Amino acid sequence: MTGTVKVLNLLLDSQPNDILGLAINRVHMNDRIPNPAFNATAECNVELNYSYYPTKWLMLGGNIQYVINPGATNNVDDALVLGLSSKVVF
Length: 90
Hints:
Blueprint: E1 2-7, E2 19-28, E3 42-55, E4 58-68, E5 79-88
Antiparallel strand pairs: 1-2, 2-3, 3-4, 4-5
């Protein structure tokens, strides 16, 4: 299951193009794959992101993700991932 929520005009009326997003997904491992590396039944991700448009031609964004059972294995700790992005339109 994957879902994304997109909210416009939520934070500031002066920035109507800004976007706040929330995504949740789960990747289930097929039981018919006999690989001992996949010792968890699934990998789950939760992500919150924000895109800020200070002008019509520039976007600055950031996100935070939490990954449960990365790579569908219990041999790796859960991960907290931070990201930054930008876009320039000519």
